[in-house]
Amino acid sequence: MKIQNAFRVGLIGTLGVGLGILILTSIVSLATIITYIGAALFLALGIEPLISFLERRRFPRWLALTITLVVIIGAFVGVIWAIVPVAISQATQLVNNTISWVNSGGAEDWFQSLQHQFPSVINDQNINAVTQWLQQNLPDITSKVLQTASGIVQGAFGVIIVIILTIYFTASLPSIKRAAYQLVPASRRSRFADLGDQITDSVGKYVMGQVSLALVNGVLSAIFLTIIGAKFPVLLATIAFFFSLIPLVGTITGSVIIVAVCILSGPPTAIAAAIYYLVYMQVEAYVLSPRIMNRAVSVPGALVVVAALAGGTLLGILGALVAIPFAAALLLIIKQVVIPRQNEL
């Protein structure tokens, strides 16, 4: 092939490469915003089944939306209201006990006891080395503490943004879907709309199924931890609820944290909690999860594991949450689009 104008071809190719790099750079720069949008849209699709349920009971959409949001936000505020006073009270008690312990000479006695038991480790030379290291690395430690505080503030700001976007997406979800369907050629629009509705319904049902499992774990944890006399049962039950929202590893991670905290109440309490969560995880895996999730998404178990691991590796917790309904949507497309088209060839 003879190139008539090499300069023009090179210029067009360079501009194309530059445009591609610009697009990729923009995506990387907007990764946080894209994550917020994805999380809000995911939550909006999860809230939609509740709104549809009320609409089927002859509620206007605006009233169904208002009732749903008030109930969800009220429940969230109620949980925070139950946790924050306990956390503040326990933190205050810990600080007061620490101050009293130091003032009464307990810290000095404890240090002398350690120095007596481990003379080769706790001596003047090692203490001076540790003090010198702290003095040298104090700016770096302070910087990391400030970065952690900044990250907490940014996380709280991100939660507020996600809540606002979720409310907006939930209110305008039908119009967003109609606008997306308008981009498809008219000859394929009805088929695309039907497939899109099935995918969004499966995502919503998956979210509701995961929340139902988490709610069961939270309620049962609160009851059992209260019975065995564990400290902070409401706080621990909330931890069980939020960790159960994470597929595969959420329940076991939350259980390990709860059992570790139960050690504060004594070894018998921790052992009882460990036995309970071992039994509960079996019941959830073989009884609750199949009955609840099979009604939401029909995905083979092996694909669930692969999708959750891949999504968690790419996008963290959000990726693990989105991966399973994404896999269900992909299977739906393959069954209803790809396979019928292959059968026609």
Automatic annotation (TrEMBL):
Tell where it localizes. Answer: Cell membrane
GO cellular component annotations, sorted alphabetically? plasma membrane
Per the similarity annotation, which family is this?
Answer: Belongs to the autoinducer-2 exporter (AI-2E) (TC 2.A.86) family.
Q: How does it sit in the membrane?
A: Multi-pass membrane protein
Ranges annotated as spanning the membrane: 7-27, 33-51, 63-84, 152-171, 213-246, 252-280, 316-334
- Predominant location category: membrane
Give the source species.
Leifsonia aquatica ATCC 14665
GO BP annotations, alphabetical order: transmembrane transport
| InterPro entries reported in the protein's UniProt record | AI-2E-like
Q: Which domain of life is it from?
A: Bacteria
User: What PANTHER family does the annotation carry?
Assistant: PERMEASE PERM-RELATED, TRANSMEMBRANE PROTEIN
Pfam families recorded:
AI-2E_transport (PF01594)
* Protein name as it appears in the record: AI-2E family transporter
Keywords (alphabetical) are:
Cell membrane, Membrane, Transmembrane, Transmembrane helix, Transport
